[in-house]
Amino acid sequence: MIFPKKLITWYLQNKRSMPWRETTDPYRIWLSEIILQQTRVAQGLPYYLSFIDHYPTVFDLANAKEEEVLKLWQGLGYYSRARNLHTTAKYIANNLEGVFPTTYKDLLQLKGVGDYTASAIASICYNEVVPVVDGNVYRVLSRYFNVDTPINSTQGIKEFKKLAWEMIDPEQPATFNQAIMEFGALQCKPQSPYCIVCPLNDSCEALKKGTVASLPIKLKKLKVKKRYFNYLIFSVKDQQTIIKQRKGKGIWQNLYEFPLIETEKEVGLDYIKDNDVFKSLLNNVDYDIILHETEFKIHKLSHQHLYTRFYIIKTEEPPKINGESNIVGIEKIREYPVPILIGNFIDSFF
Length: 350
Fold this sequence. Notes:
By secondary structure, the protein is an alpha+beta fold. Helices cover 43% and strands 14% of the residues. A hairpin with a 3-residue loop joins strand 6 (297-300) and strand 7. It holds the Pfam family NUDIX_4. One of its GO terms (molecular function) is purine-specific mismatch base pair DNA N-glycosylase activity.
């Protein structure tokens, strides 16, 4: 079929130079694929290089502390990826003697590895004929075949996987998979694709029908939830502050933050001072408190927006803390893994 041959020819002429394209080591391919989930190549590349530098093998990653892994991941977001990465590294090192599964089916059993990642590793490392389907692939296939089935619907997921199976070159599955992903990233872009010089423009159904700009179709996301985060930033003699580790299964699990008062709507200083969290920390302690900035810092996550304010609390003696909080020297605050929202505040304030 002409489709895979043209894609592969284009890829060999236009592909970007990437360190993970110079190897078939499953550890490095797996690491790159986990990092590049929800992340652009330009942002993910420095993280990949940093992880390889710190953890050259799966055994090195397995032996690391989770806090070290989270700190190295800081700024990439979707931190469950980092926790799953660490969990899977320990499983491969300790249960599989450092040897990765060699088939798509077995790779799917690893924590944090889904259809796309298993397909990528199986085809690139072991030349298994199994197609990858990511955002770039959805876009290329939906436009080339003019398919308007929503890509995030159950029917769409099945339909596009079937198309990918029909298109893959069985003799060069690794090259084909990388070619179609690269084609979507560089040529068949979301906005302003290069249709005029596209090697597939003589057979692209969406180009013929004038529907390129409207494809692929995606169902609307769930309503975005608003959350109001009011952080208490302690400054004890301008030398110490208080942080605590987030627990539970919500956002930022096991990362550190400042004491938090979460509310359902915007609140004022009087509400903060009357809150149980605030009073438990400042019982019988003299303090001064000011709002750092009146405007909210809005931090956007996939299904929620965090409207955030920081209250600066100066004291001359350490507040009363419980077992979940730590008093740390301001000079050590950057050693802890924190969400990027907190990291940005630390860089601007301390």
